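Sharing a chain and its predicted structure for anyone who wants a worked example. Both blocks are below, sequence first, tokens second.
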Amino acid sequence: MGMCWAGGRLLEVWDSGGCSHSVDLTALGKHGDVYTEGPFACLAWSHSETRLLYVAEKSRPKPQPPCPWDVPGAAWPAAEDEDEEGKQFVYHEDWGEALSTRSVPVLCVLDLQGLSLSVLEGVPEHLSPGQALWSPDDRGVVFVGWWHKPFRLGLNACSNRRSGIFHLDLASGCCELLSAEKGSVCSPRLSPDGQRLLYLEGAVGGPHRQCLRLRMLTWQTRQTVTVLDVVQEPTEAFAGLYAEALPPRCWAADGRRCLCSAPPQDLLLVDTEACTVTNLTAGSSEGCWELLTLQWDLLVATCSAPHHPPSLVVAVLPPAGQELPLGWVPVEDTPTVPGVTWKTLTIQPPSSGQGQAAQDTQAFEALLLSPSDGTPPHPLIVCPHGGPHAVFDARWRPSMAALCQLGFAVLLVNYRGSLGFGQASISSLLSRVGEQDVTDTQLAVEQALHREPLDPHRLALLAGSHGAFIALHLLAREPERYQACALRSPVSNLPALLGTSDIPDWRYTSLGLPYSFERVPCAEEVATMLLRSPIAQAAQVQTPVLLCVGARDRRVSPTQALELYRVLRARGVPARLLWYPEGGHALAGVETQADVFKNCAHWFLQHLGQPRRDGTGQHSP
């Protein structure tokens, strides 16, 4: 049988005869909105396929109507209602950016045989449950529980929040912690025979994204082993696990092997008993692979590259020890996009002599997308990624390909601190934000200009969030180097984020300082944050700047861009601010993304001139 959500509240169950059940869940009044996406969401059949498990917002009492003293014949509220009457404006915490409607999740079970809906009891009050699945005997539920005391910190794109794997016995109501007491976990995945439970585990606190370990619990004995550990320094064989989640179906039919994605680009096969890793996509001409599902050893995946939209491919997983070479069969191929070529550049920081730490000279990477038509040298748009602990993998990005078709080269910089290059690289950025990341990005620009047919006199910056933080520093450092800059959701004033961001802990961690919930800022720390902030050097900026912000951004307040916009305008720097009333940090949505790209492209064409395409060496001013 299959199932689907319709509008986040209507659950439909389909079988070979068509739609067998259609249930309006929220109309039953047992809970609030259903979680259909995000870190808490799940939808799981019991093994008997008679019950469905999902997560929804806990139901709250509806607000009382206004006091009816001026309504003829109206009665005063009953005494027992007085407690609720004054609570309609009580603040309820939520889980931050992109999760503003997620406050108190509850586990729910829909019984299709008994046609009943129940909210499970027994989850400790200090936990927010999610990512649930049925235990092997259907007598219990396994879930991830996030601690939300003393208060919630932003969860989106943060794999460092304290959480655990729990088992809730439905008969006794007993809730058992299966993972470490103080860890950060996600993605419990039960093997086909129900004997083993895989999950990802990281450290609490520190970088908000990090290298994770793969853990496996034997269900009967409750013993846990580490299958793959955190990788400090990557090797050609294995660089570590960094994905925010395991694929929903990742186990092979033998109950021994599993598959996972490994940023920045590969699919890995893991033998959970031998603790070995096989790269299934090594040597592929494609840039990025993503596993969609693994069903009885049939692999379904997509592969793409900067010049190639995703293609759907399948393969049958051979017996253990015979996996390579794996024969991928295209199901729906997509043609390459004309006018775009790409390559990976290795950037080597200079050595200053003895006494340097290994991380100070560690090489990093950048992806260069170039027009394959037109006449070089090409104008260059430089893009440091946000995060900062994220990565530009070599996947298809329509906006970047479109910039190439407009005649621009694009440099996607994975400065040290990016994901996929070992935990030591991630940790190297702590206490060095605004310094190491900025220097790395400029070094990538200089080496790209030296090696490739690029125009050093027509450079621009395009970035968002922490990438915009880096870009603003570059504008202040090199006031005459860049001719245009377009930024999304920019970080410009670090101390101001302490009271406005859903992740205030990052402001301390980025400076190499430990964070605690009861911490309050001191003058010295605030001063350090301000000195690392681009707003403190805004007087040096001369480059025209386009700012794009979402009014509902919880991660980086839109007032950051507004403050910067006012400073630039007051100093006579060409600046334009685009304000999206319903936009969040990612400025997601088709209409918003299209408008942002259109305005950024016009900004570059206006300030860099039309790229040369006619072989004359001329461009429009």
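Comments welcome. The chain has ten helices and 30 strands.
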